[in-house]
Every structure is written in structure tokens, then in C-alpha cells.
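Q: Okay, next protein. This is ABC transmembrane type-1 domain-containing protein from Batillaria attramentaria. I've checked the sequence twice, so it should be correct. Can you predict the 3D structure?
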Amino acid sequence: MSGFEEFCGGSEFWNSSLLLNNSWPEFTPCFRYTALVWGPCGWLWVTAPFYLHYIRKNRLYGHVRGNALNICKVFVCLVLTLLVLVEAFVGKEDDMYRNPVSSALYVACGVKAATFLLAAVLTLLSRGAGVTSPCVLFIFWLLTFVAHIIPFYTLLVQEVEDNSYLLFVVFCACITFVGLQFLLHCVAESPPRPVQVTEQGKPPSPELTASFPSKLKTHSIIPEFSRRWTRELAKATVSGKRKPKAERRRGGRFKHPPSLLWVLFRVFYPELFFAHLMRLIADVLQFANPILLSALISYIDNKGENHPWQGWMLVLGFFVVTFFYSMFFNQNSYRSYNIAMKIKTALVAAVFRKSLTMNNEAKREFTTGSVVNLMAIDCQRIQDVASNLWIVLSTPLQIVLAFYMLNDTLGVSFVAGVAVIVALIPINVRISVLARRAQADQLIVKDERVKMMNEILSGMKVLKMYAWERSFEEKIKALRDREVKLLRTAAILNTINSFCWICSPVLVTMASFITYVQMNEQHILEPDVAFVSLSLLNILRQPINMVPSFFSDMVQAHVSICRIRDFLSGEDISCFEVNRNPYAVSYEESRRGILLGVLNAGREDGAKSSDAESSDGLSRGRGISRSTKPAFFLF
């Protein structure tokens, strides 16, 4: 007997025959006292230091007021601690436990009691830090509730209520309070002082006050959409969102970029990493469905040799995998679009700030129309790529996993499908290069057209005076024809690219199945081979179909990044032309001074019409000085 089995009172940690070859899924007592207890409790003890550091550094809301919800949370933790101690005492005196009683029982009860007390402390600290829905505690109570299900049905099947009524009552009370605690953590606390959280005059964002499960499924924004659907959308009614510290520093970090792509990566890589991690987890979970499908087909083929509960567990596995896949997929989509919007906002702000500091030579090169195109079109293209940037990591992972599982199902026949994909890659690469050139030329022609339109509008009087309408109309029409021709070329190339990739899953499936059947006469498309292979090929269809559109967007985004980079690299106004006086008067005194200066200028020069009034009859103030706050513009 090993030391661990002696610690568990002679019970094995894992027994496959007891679990699978049984009328019900029975786990060993050692597994119930160790893995099902140490797992959830270990989660809380491991994440507690990081969570304490988080609430110490990020006190966003202030102090949550005492209410029935947080009082019930602490009270339930104390009740669970008492029940665990009673369970240890009952287990010592009960015949259902092994004799002598294993040390694992006492250790499990001690660990659970200490963990419940830690949960109560973290609940109080979360309330003090203003955290309305702590994710660490929600995950802990979810794991604890799931871990209590196995011992509970074990007691029911073994009919412990007939032999040990007190033990059954104690455990029923324990699992009831654990379920109650889990439901309590599904509800968020009332946020303290919501006016301080949001911007002045705006209602609080529902995301700030939503519970953790609501954030996982993005249910917090549904009421916001419902209100905007029934009412007119106004700027004052848009929900505000408090900027985190990292976002408040983002503007300062964005001012000195050695490279546009590098600075975007340095600013947003933590959020990108977390969003892409959610997507990778969803991709791995997606491949659990073919495995479950193969197991279900095998169960149906050998139904007489298997137990009914195994079929129910397989069906439950489909639901669990689909649920968690949906959760991680939605989190990736939500965070990716948020990051893309932040990137677009940062780029638009950088372009706008640069347009205010450019010198005259740079302004002649980049007209107002080109600046508007940079903010409206190029920044939007970069946002579209940033929202789907997870394809760079997700597509290779899905292809590798799909090919690996196809190799186990079809053998080397899947190489025919790989050959089809490899044959399509150089064709699509060449088409993408041609489309990129067409996009770049189209943007250049568009800038020329916008520049000429601005010149025409600014010199309309001269144009009408000399009757040059026909000549300039032909020039504009020629530029527009060139632009439309380039747009048509790019659209045709993108259509060919998309058609090749859309047909590729069908070609891969046909090539794989035909090769599998023709390689050996004994190869027959049986249900487990056909359905599992089709499931894997359907999973493979999504990344392959998304590649062409993403390549097209990447081409456009690359051109847009180059244009924005060239614009931001333009020369600025010399710093010696701006006088910064650190001893200037305050902002309020400057406002009063400029008003008095204008009034005095009008009164003192009232008698001198030639000096006080200009040719258009307006009074002119002289010798007026004005100081402004940082980040304010003067008009």
C-alpha cells in the first residue's frame, strides 16, 4: 500500500473499472476527499494573492454599502464552515466511513473550513474596494457546487439516508447552502456613487454594474439596446464609461512611436493577448465535438454492452462543450471589437492632433480632403482588421488540429486534401498582391480627385469668371473613371480569391474521401469514419472561408497603415515659434482679462473711427494676451 493510499484509508485514488463498468458512475472515496475538495479550494488559495493585489491597486467604485445581499454572503460562508466541522464530527462517529477513519476526511474538512473563511474575508474586502461582482469568488462557488454533486448522488445511490440520517441531512444542508451562495454571486452588488464613475451628465454604463456571468454572456448591454430602440439616441443619454488607468495613460504613450505598428502593439498587447487566449480556448473546445461524436457512434453500435448513464453523459458532454465554446467565442468577439474601436480612436486622435501641428509645407502635401480620408476610411480599415486579428493564430491552430485528427480517422488519405489547399495558396497569394496594388493606386487617385475638388470649390469665383467649368469637369471625370476602373479590378480579383477559398472545403472533402476509398478495397465509409470526418471538415471550412476576406482586409489595412505612417512622419511647426510662459496668469484671470481688453479697446478708440474700426466696421482689440488650459483649443 502506497503512502497516498494509506493517507486515504486504503482507498485508491482512481479506479477506471469502478467508474465505467458499473451501473452508475462511482468515484472512489479518495478521489472525493482529495480532488473534489482540493481542486476548488486550491483555485481560491492560488488566485487570492493576485485578487488582493488587484483590489488594492484598483479601487474604482469606493465602498459598497451594506445590504442584505453582502450580509447573506458572509452569513452563508460562516454557516458552511460550521456545517463542515459538523460533517467531520459525524464522519468520525458514523459507520459509513472507513474504520479507522482516513486522514483525508479530516484534511478535506479542514481545507474546506479554512477556504470558506477565506471566501468570507474576500467578500468583505471586495465590498470595501467597491467590486460589485468578484469573478474569483464566482468561479470558486461554481466549482464547489459542481464538486458537491458527485458526493451527493453517491450518498443517494448508496441509500445513506436509511443508514445514517444525520450524515445525509448535514450534507444536504451543505450542498443547499453552496447552491445558494452560487446564486447570490450571480447577482451584482449595487454600485456606490455611480455619478463619480461616469462622465458628468451621462448615465452609468451597464457594463460597470453588471455581474460576472452577465459579462461573460454580454447580457449587460441588452437593456441598453432596448432603450435605444424605443427612444431617440442623443449624446447626453449615451452611457458613460470610466476610463481605466491604462487607458488614461494611452495618449501619452502614443506620442513617441518609433513605428506605428510597434506602438499599437505595445499599447494594446495585454488586451489582445487575453482576447486571443479566449479564442484559442474556444478552438480547442470545438474539437471536442468530433471526439464526443465518435464516442456516441461507438456507444450506439455497442448499446447492449454499455450502461444507459454513459449515453446520457455523452449527450450532456455535447451541451457543456457547446456552452463553454459559445461563452469563450462571445468573449473573444466582444473584446476584439472593443480593442478595434480603441485602436481606431487612438489613430483618429493622432491624425487630428498631427493636423493641428503640421507646418505649411506638410499642409500643402496633405490637404484637408486627404486628412478626412485618413480618419474616415483608413482608420476604419485598420479597425476591421484589428477586430479579426485572431484569425492569424486561430486558423493555423484549427488546421493543424483538424489535419491531426483527420490523420487518425482517414490515415494518409487526408494528404490529398492538404495538397488541394497547398495548390490554392500560391494562386491566392498572387491575386492578393494584384489586389493590393489596385487598392494602393485607387487611394492615390482618390486623393488627387479630392484635392482637385477642394481647389475647385475654393476657386469657384475664378472658375466661373473664365468659364473653365467644362475643362475641370473633364479632369474630374477622368480621375473618377480611373478610380472606378481600379475599384472594378480590385473587386474582380477579390471575387476570384473568395471563390477559390469557398470551393476549397468541397474540393478537400472530395479529394480526401476519394483517396481513402481508392487506396484500399477494405476502406469503407462507415458511420464513424464518414460523420467524424465530415465534422472535422466542417470545422476546417470556417477558417478556410475566412482567410480570403481577411487577406483582402489585410491588404487594405497595410496600405492604410503606410498612408497614416507617412502622414504622421510629416514635419511639425518649429517649437521656437510657440512661446510657453510658466509665469502666466491663471485661466480664469485670463478669461476676465481678455473680456476687459476687448471692452476697453472699444471704449478708448471709440472716437478714432479710423483706428478702432476696420474696413468691415468691426472693432479690433490690441495687445490681448490669452493663456489656456492643456488640451484646449482656441477658435
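A: Here is a summary of the prediction. The two ends are 86 Å apart (CA to CA). The chain has three domains: 3-192, 245-568, 585-607+625-635.
Q: Noted. On to the next one.
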